[in-house]
Amino acid sequence: MEMNMLKNKCSLWAAVAAVLLVYAPVQVTAQTNAPAQSVTTTTNAPALTSADLPDWLSRPLTLEECLNIALVNNSDIKESQFDVEAATGQAITNRAIVIPKVVGKMGVNRVQDQYIERVPGSTLDVPTDSWTSSIVVQQQFFKGGQIAASLKIAKHLKEQAIYSHRAKIANVLTEVKTRYYDVLLALEQIKVNEASVELLTKELEDSQRRFKAKTVPKFNVLRAEVQLANAQPPLIQARNDYRIAKNDLCNLLGYDIPRTVWEDIPLNLVGKLEAQPFEINLSEAMAQAIEKRPELGALRETEIIAQQSVRMAKGGYLPGITGYAGYRSTSPSYKTDLTDIYHGWVIGGELNWNLFDGLMTKGTVDVAKANLSKTEEQLAATVRDIEVEVRSAYSSFIEAKETLESQEKNVELAEEALRLANALESAGSGTQLDVLDAETALTQARTTWVNALRNYSVSLANLERAIGITVQTTGEIETE
């Protein structure tokens, strides 16, 4: 009987096990497929089509096109343009001092009867209401030299704003070129590191084949695997640098990146890193910078404005003469009929002279003189700063140029060294270490070469900016 009970229990457990075996695969599949379905839902979002992309993302961009786009869309340039408009408005305000003013006036008055003084015994009805109106043309003829000074300030205000605007444009265009070259550099670094990974992958595959053929030890395979693993982080970093560089460039171009565009902006640039020849000596660069830099032009205009401001301030010591002419209408002062109008032409002039204004004019003159001295010191300091900037930019350009020249044949030599190392290894007279060293040297040579190209282009852009040269949208070099 106990044996039968044991058999029954075994049969029961067998049945339960069978059921679990039947349903277990289904349950495991359901568990493992749930995350996969979730990931699929995320990655299978509607892909962007060319119609969804803005124009600047759907076509390749040259450097010239990027400069043109920045001129139109960059926020710093737009703000600077508004400063020019504000200066133009201020110039109009300053010139208004010589333009006649047309002034219209009208007033009404009512006095309580008890306040009206009457002649004793008179029967005249003195009016309690009165009105007057006039339209007069006023012209300032003399104001202690302030008129001429105001006109000069109006002219130089606009010139100052234009010079500052040019300086802002030059800064933005130089930054755009730098970011453009950064994108090209990151793209070249991706190619260099991909080529390195490809070479090391082939080396690993070759080591694995030779290990299977028992012609090399396991150590060769492990060393190839380590070298390949070491080559992955630079490639990952290069791809990240490429994404960041495109973000920075798009920001300078004044674009709002669509929210439908994910972490990698599909920006495509047309161009490559190359060394454009440029020759200039330091003395010529210094002279041209002092003459052409827009910052100095703006400060020179500021100095003239400060000089005229002193002249305007001193005008407070002198009288002002104003002439006027117009037409006036008024109600009679002794009639209650307000429709009985007295009217006619008026002409005259006024002389105003503040014989003592509580030293306000003296304080204004002192402030204007201090501002003039400050502007003169700023101009002298800026000249020195620009000279230092030109020297530094010129030195950096020479360094980049010499570095580039030293690396012109290095990539070819590294490629030939790798070819010889592979040939020696195949012939049995070389080692795997020689091949790996040659591959590392080739990657370094290529990296140094593309960095040298980028540094040359950027240092040239900075030198052009330092000496007052900008690349115009036509692609021609023109002084500012």
Written description of the protein model:
With 480 residues, the protein is α+β, with helices and mostly antiparallel strands. It has two domains: 330 residues, Outer membrane efflux proteins (OEP) (Up-down Bundle); 63 residues, Outer membrane efflux proteins (OEP). The longest helix is centred in the middle third of the chain and has 67 residues. Strands 1-2-3-4 form a four-stranded antiparallel beta sheet, with no helix packed on it. It has a two-stranded antiparallel ribbon with strand order 5-6.
Secondary-structure element order, as H and E? HHHHEEHHHHEEHHHEE
> How would you classify the quaternary structure?
single chain
**Helical coverage, percent range:** 55-70%
Total number of helices: 11
Shape type: elongated
CATH architectural label of the largest domain = Up-down Bundle
How many structural units, i.e. domains? Answer: 2
Q: Strand order of the main beta sheet, please? A: 1-2-3-4
**Remind me, CATH topology of the largest domain?**
Outer membrane efflux proteins (OEP)
By CATH, the superfamily of the largest domain comes out as Outer membrane efflux proteins (OEP)
